[in-house]
Design goal:
It contains 20 helices and 16 strands. The longest helix has 19 residues, at 243-261. The strands form 3 sheets. Strands 6-13-12-16-15-14 form a 6-stranded mixed beta sheet. By secondary structure, the chain is α+β, with helices and mostly antiparallel strands. A hairpin with a 5-residue loop joins strand 10 (392-398) and strand 11.
């Protein structure tokens, strides 16, 4: 191994194996009829000089308020409470005590028509509260309705008659802006807006002020908020995702920023100028943050800290890995083929794996921009779990319409060598017909429940802790409907009127499966063992069991 490779691998703070994943426990939702409510949660990370803790807010209300109304109401109600009342709702709990800070505020129902069936609401952060199951926020068929709305009339007077009616859903001044089920905000410790999931950063200054007020609210009581460098990261959600899930999503957003700047540069910038506008350095990277924010709520890989691989014959995967190993450039750290957020094969140094969190950032980079599909690209990237203090350099090129090749190197001058290696790879894969087989595998949507032949089984997710990978069939009815897909699961064994849920965790795997509601325990146990035998039989095609190393 060359000296430059030894230096990179010895100096990096690489996490070679994944952290022990926390098994998510999602409580079943209940239909609320007596008093209609909507669950809102607010999680915040921010910088602090006096320690680390996390604060979460949950509130129940009968109608959807704008974010500012909710947050300002939370502060004013807490400050105006009597001593006895404040003791019930006080958020000032030291995290070391193990007590979860919780604030609950309840409003009277305005009418029976505001009743919300929480089992039928969709968890996707891109979907407004009154969404009916489509993928878009609003269809163009609804433009005529919006155009006649008083709110849009005011919006049109302010921004001109040619303004797009759909932009009203991204305007923070619009009440419909608050209908999104999840918002992300990122700002500096000086209150400078850096990113918002919806709307323009320059038009949410009032919300940034509210967030700073909340941070000051804790600081005045000698309480602290968990620090992620000089940034505040905030999630405002009514998706019923757990605190752990929201925390992980904020971590991913922070790591996405680090992948562009490195943590060293990020810290140095704000040490020199506290009020620096970070958007000047992040210009053009908003699509990557947007894509990540949209993907995290739907991809199980983020929750399970694992990746999904393309189902492929083991001999074909081994052949592709062998060819990649023969043509790899010198001083290469990693080489991989990916498609549609799935891994085809990975070439890596011996005893040095790539952390799933870093792989998710690589996938997000490739899928977040259409530019990579048309040209060969050479871009710096920081992989926070490998080394958050320095840049690596990634060569990105699509070798077919769906399959993307990546070479990751510590040497910034390897572009032309990587380009030559790409040409050799395409030539050798074409000669043995492997390129066409890879393309066909990438176009395959995967396997279905019918391929397994387990009676009563509707859907499952299986995670191999050994390989840090998961496998799952394509979604079929009723889970092909996004609204039905969001029904919560409970770990272990749970029976509802709609399905029977099994969660099975061992030291080597995790299994989450949904069966029909009428299946017996004995039949469920038998079917689960049948499923595990099928997964074991197909293990080499479902997972990358042995990556080629050098």
């Amino acid at each position: 191994m060359s000296p430059i490779m030894e230096e990179i691998l010895s100096d990096s703070n690489s996490i070679l194996t994944s952290d022990e994943p926390l098994s998510p426990t999602l409580q079943p939702q209940q239909r609320l009829k007596a008093r209609p409510t909507t669950q809102l949660s607010f999680d915040a990370y921010s910088s602090s000089s006096s320690g680390s803790s996390i604060r979460s807010f949950n509130t129940t209300s009968n109608k959807v308020d704008t974010g500012a109304d909710f947050l300002l109401g939370l502060i004013s109600k807490s400050n105006s409470a009597t001593s006895s009342e404040r003791s019930k709702i006080s958020p000032f709990h030291n995290v070391k005590s193990g007590k979860r800070p919780l604030i609950k505020l309840t409003k009277e129902a305005s009418s029976e028509e505001e009743e919300i069936d929480q089992q039928d609401t969709c968890r996707d952060s891109d979907v407004p509260l009154d969404h009916n199951g489509d993928d878009s926020i609003i269809s163009r068929n609804d433009i005529s309705v919006i155009s006649d709305d008083k709110e849009y009339s005011g919006y049109r007077r302010k921004y001109g008659h040619e303004a797009d009616p759909l932009l009203i859903y991204k305007d923070p001044q619009s009440i419909t802006w608050s209908r999104h089920r999840k918002h992300f905000f990122i700002l500096s410790s000086a209150g400078k807006p850096i990113y918002t999931r919806y709307g323009e950063e320059t038009r949410i200054s009032s919300y940034m002020g509210v967030i700073q007020a909340i941070v000051s609210f804790f600081a005045d009581a000698d309480d602290t908020i968990r620090s992620l460098g000089p940034l505040y990261l905030v999630a405002v959600s009514r998706t019923n995702e757990s605190e752990m899930q929201l925390r992980d999503q904020l971590n991913y957003l922070y790591n996405q920023i680090v992948s562009v700047l490195t943590s060293t540069q990020l810290t140095k910038i704000f040490e020199q100028r506290v009020n620096f506008d970070l958007r000047r350095l992040l210009g053009g990277t908003e699509p990557f943050l947007d894509n990540l924010a949209s993907t995290m709520g739907d991809d199980p890989g983020f929750m399970f800290s694992s990746i999904q691989c393309v189902r492929m014959n083991k001999d074909l995967r081994d052949k592709v890995g062998s060819i990649m190993q023969s043509i790899k450039p010198q001083d290469l750290l990693y080489a991989m083929l990916i498609t549609n957020n799935k891994l085809i094969t990975l070439l890596r140094p011996k005893k040095h794996s790539l952390h799933p969190a870093d792989l998710h950032l690589v996938f997000n980079m490739v899928n977040g921009s259409s530019t990579f599909r048309s040209v060969e690209s050479w871009t710096p990237i920081c992989l926070p779990k490998f080394n958050n203090k320095g840049f690596l350099h990634a060569y990105v090129c699509y070798i077919t319409s769906n399959v993307c090749l990546l070479f990751i190197s510590p040497d910034k001058d390897k572009f032309f060598e990587c380009s030559e290696a790409k040409n050799l790879l395409k030539e050798e894969l074409s000669d043995c017909n492997a390129l066409q087989e890879i393309e066909e595998a990438s176009q395959n949507e995967g396997y279905s429940i019918a391929d397994i032949g387990v009676p009563g089984l509707r859907h499952f997710i299986y995670k191999s802790r050994t390989h840090v990978q998961y496998t799952s069939p394509t979604l079929v009815a009723p889970y092909s409907d996004p609204r039905k897909r969001q029904k919560p699961l409970k770990v272990h064994y749970y029976v509802s009127p709609n399905e029977t849920i099994l969660g099975w965790l061992t030291s080597s795997f995790e299994l989450y499966a949904a069966f029909g509601p009428l299946i017996s325990k004995s039949a469920l146990t038998s079917s689960s063992h049948t499923l595990l035998r099928w997964i074991k039989k197909e293990e080499e095609s479902l997972f990358i069991v042995s990556s080629p190393v050098f």
